[in-house]
Amino acid sequence: MDTATIATVSAITGVIGVISGIILGWSGRSRTIRQDTADEASRDALLRADMDYIKRGIEDIRVEQKAQGRRYDELAERVTRVEESAKQAHRRIDRLDNEGRG
Predict the structure, then answer these.
(1) 38-43 average pLDDT score
(2) pLDDT of 6
(3) What sign results for the dihedral spanned by CA atoms 86, 89, 90, 91?
(4) What is the Cα 58 distance to its own chain's centre?
């Protein structure tokens, strides 16, 4: 073989090597991008699930807080009625004491 043929074969081999390197690099990059996209989608789904869980928890707290407020209002009303009843009872006791002394 002469040097021109060897140079041509070497050049073709080099070009084939460069082209195969570009193709392999591009396919690796594409695979990495797909994997990154899948990972990001998974993280987003997990984050959304966590946010939904927190929203449900907050809603449960709000419902419980409203129920607690209603119970407090009912108790305050009962205390007011008991205080009025006690006030009337004291008046009757005072009246009976005054009648018994007089």
Answers:
(1) 92
(2) 87
(3) positive
(4) 10
pLDDT at residue 38 tops 70:
yes
Query: Measured between alpha carbons, how far is 41 from 71 in angstroms, rounded to an integer?
Result: 45
Phi/psi of residue 15, nearest 5 degrees = -65, -45
Average pLDDT rounded to a whole number, residues 56-83: 97
Which pTM was predicted? 0.52
Q: Rounded CA gap, 67 and 78, in Å?
A: 17
Three-class SS of the chain: CCHHHHHHHHHHHHHHHHHHHHHHHHHHHHHHHHHHHHHHHHHHHHHHHHHHHHHHHHHHHHHHHHHHHHHHHHHHHHHHHHHHHHHHHHHHHHHHHHHHHC
